[in-house]
Each structure stands twice: as C-alpha cells, then as structure tokens.
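quick one before i forget lol
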Amino acid sequence: MKVLLTLASAALLMNISLHPAGSPRLTLFGGATAHARVSVDFGFFYNELAPYGEWRSLDPYGWVWYPDVAADWQPYTLGHWVFTDEFGWTWVSTEPWGSIPFHYGRWFYDDNYGRWAWVPDTEWGPAWVSWRSGSGFIGWAPLPPTVRFKPNIRFFSPRQDAGIRRKDWCFVSTSQFLNPRLQQVIVPPRRNINLIKNTTNVTRYLVINQRVVNRSIDFDHFERETRTRVPRYRVVETDQPMMRETPVREGQVILFRPQIVRTNTPPPPGAIRTPDRRAGSRHPDYYSERQTPDVAPRSYRRRDDQDWQDWQDDRQPPDTDRRFSNNPRSPEFEER
C-alpha cells in the first residue's frame, strides 16, 4: 500500500471519492507541511490493524476486523472526549490503533462470533456514535453499519431503531463527561433501560466546509450546567496512525485523517490471522482502571446463558431513534 502525497493524486481522489472532511492540507510531525492530504486505500487499514486483531470476510459487509481485546470490551470506552474548534466533540482513544476504527467505518456486535467487529468505510468523523442527554447524564453508542452517512444527505438508515442495542450505550453523569479515564465512571449497564427512558436523543452532526462536525452536546449549555470552562483544542494532522504517546498536548489534538479510497481487494495473506493476544494489543490497565469501588464491573459482554437470553434481541423502543429515518432533511443532521 502506497501513501500518495502528490497534488495530482489528491485532485483525482477528490473526484472519485466522498467529499473530504476538511482542508487539503496536512501538518506532519517535525514541522513539515504537505500541500495535499494523504490518500490511502483499504489496504492501509488491513496492514495497520492486522497486528492488533483478525480480519474475516463476513456477509453482507465484506472484510471486517475483530480487535484483540478483553471479553467485556466495547468501542468508545478506553479514551475520552475533547472539544475541537474544527470538528466539535471528538473521541481521543488511548488504544494504539484507535486513530482508525473510531473515526472511520462502523462497529457492530457479532452475535455468532461473540465479539465486536469493525466495518471499514471511507468517511472520517470525530466519532461515529449516537448521543443521548438529560436528567444529569450523557450517553453515547456506536452507530452500526445500517446507519450510513453521505455528505450531501447526512445520515440515513433502513431501520427505525438503527440496530443499537440497549446494552451498547455508555452513560456517565454530566459532571464526568470530560473525565480522561471514562472507563472508571461509566454507569453499570443494568441502569441503561432507565437512562434511555429519561434521556433525549441529541444526536446532531453538521457538514461545515466539507467537514463532519459533532455538535450533539450543546457546548454553552454544558458549560452552564457543569459550571466549568471547557478547553477548546486545535487540530494538528499527522501521517502516523499508530501513536505511541498522548495525542493531546499544549492545546492541540493530533489526528490521523487521510482521504480513503474504497477498494474491493481482499487483505493480503499476512493480514489474515487467528488472534494470538499479541502483547500490547489490549489496554494494560483495562481491568484495574475500571474496578473502582464506585463502579460495578462491566460484565455485560459475558456470554452466560441468562445474559444471552435476556439481551440477544434487545433493542431500543422504536421511537428513540427516529432521527435515523430515510428523510434526508432530518433536523438533527444539518449542512452549512
């Protein structure tokens, strides 16, 4: 897989791919500046993520990736939220591979395989999640593959409930939303049924200057409610997807955000393997950080018979996700 940095290639890709999500300018580590955004194809995903999981072919999605993670892991839990001037609320992952699957594509829980899986896609976003807020809580859940995004028509889905299960939601008290160790303060999932009833869908993504911007949680209202001044970060783009140190520093957030070209080629043989629990693929403090006295263990991903019977067909009430209808003018997703 080759990374293209020529203006000619960038211009061509802008014609054949989805609209880029930002300015065609890339700032690299060391101060170098490229005058065209980095462009890569799906082969880049295959190679970069292979050491941290397993690629499998699965209908109807094609090639999907299963990360090597703990049994009770779920997306968008190991990391934290920051507010950026360019993209609004943005997820910052603490997992070394997090710059790719939390900003491109969709997640779903594979019931047959008993694991979360990631479906690649081409459009970058600050986080592909649905949002709820109210009664002193904020919640988010991964958007599944049934919820598509197109820059000109925003989100659409063939299903009213968008395929989000009740236990897929992560809720925290509003005062803890900016906690840098969210996995410690996520509410036990047994409370999700009541929290969903007592919160409101606030999912709101905009398309501004060809960028996907997440304004789901009202910035001014959040500051008033929490009586805090929320830091605003400036985005600096990098050509290094696997970050070995914190991407947040000195008022900046370092993001990997290349243009992606969709390809139908399968992963190379070296990218397809059986998970070997490679050292470093799991977060080293996943259990210790989350087993605090005030937080119950998140055991909802265990596959015991009772848990599976209780939750296998669990879906949100039909009226909770009507924002994901086929109506291209849904007010929650605006273009400016």
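fyi Residues 72 and 299 are 6 Å apart (CA to CA).
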